[in-house]
């Protein structure tokens, strides 16, 4: 969930090497792994909600990146892959860590102090809409089309539907919702930055992401030390939620996502983004007992339709 919005290798780092022909490189069919990834990222918003019951938002974000970094470092240790090298690379990773991990993870945790986890999951689905709007300015190869403009407008109409704009946004916490939308905006800004600074950097995506999470851990350790107090107790379920959020939702999930990109391509792999709000809403209602009004699923469907339209690309001419 990331996360996060689903990253594409072309927006950040080179794709991991394709598996050799004739060898079975995975134990589970990609459709099963796709479903598992959707559930993990969909449940991330529920885990954040439970984590904030005992820990400050900065501490939830810190635990998330810490256990995510440990999970990816374990993968690198097994593979015997080195971390990235060079001060320039680590400088760019520091900025990427702030934009893709430190800021959005903290904002989502603060948002869920006052809004349902289901609403946070739907706000996360607006990330492709922000990305499309930003790419028109920041990335020259992303040309505006009528369909993409229509998707952008439709998507934000869906946001207004979710928030109940026709009734004056009553019952919706404005501050918490703004934090969640700002968090979703951080992701496309971060990926645009990564695309322009780290594309082509030596090292696998797992190594670069592991280094990025290490830097984010340092950033959030400093912020937590300055603005929060040390927890006096470690309740079981909030603690397990934070550990799972990091090890599964940030570490294992990214590893699975890179494998999907390698096997079925970024277009299919990024479709997981459209299942996240559905699962987040279902988990919030069934597990946490959150209320669900008609405008929430309707608005979410409009948001996802608009987001799908913004991801379409103009057809290319057949090569001779």
Describe this structure in words.
It is a single chain. This protein is mostly helical and 320 residues long. The chain is built from twelve helices and no strands. The chain has helices at residues 30-51, 57-79, 87-111, 117-124, 127-138, 146-163, 174-197, 205-227, 236-264, 266-269, 276-286, 295-310. The termini are far apart. Mean pLDDT is 84; it is low at 2-25 and 316-320.
Distance between the termini: 40 Å
Average of pLDDT: 84
Question: Roughly how much helix do the residues carry, as a percent range?
Answer: 55-70%
Low-confidence stretches: 2-25, 316-320
Query: What is the helix tally?
Result: 12
Short overview:
With 320 residues, the protein is mainly alpha-helical. It has twelve helices and no strands.
Key traits:
mainly alpha, 320 residues, 0% strand, disordered C terminus, 67% helix, single chain, disordered N terminus
Which helices and strands, and how do they pair?
Blueprint: H1 30-51, H2 57-79, H3 87-111, H4 117-124, H5 127-138, H6 146-163, H7 174-197, H8 205-227, H9 236-264, H10 266-269, H11 276-286, H12 295-310
